[in-house]
Amino acid sequence: MRKQQTIYTSPLDALIALTKRLSLYENQYNIGSEDFFYRYSKGQLSDEEHWVEWANDYRHFLGLRLELEKRLQDVA
Q: What does pTM read for this prediction?
């Protein structure tokens, strides 16, 4: 698996890009990312490359979302 690095100009741009990628997975496998991640975390899915990539994208999404929520709370 080749590692790919994408640089975004802001956390919001990164969050939007991740949301689009997650949507593609959800449509392809007909399951929401939250449900997928729960099953993956419980070991109900294998460690195939596409599952690992989806799980990593979801973890990154959660981290960015939390970061942006904290920033918004600091502003309010």
A: 0.86
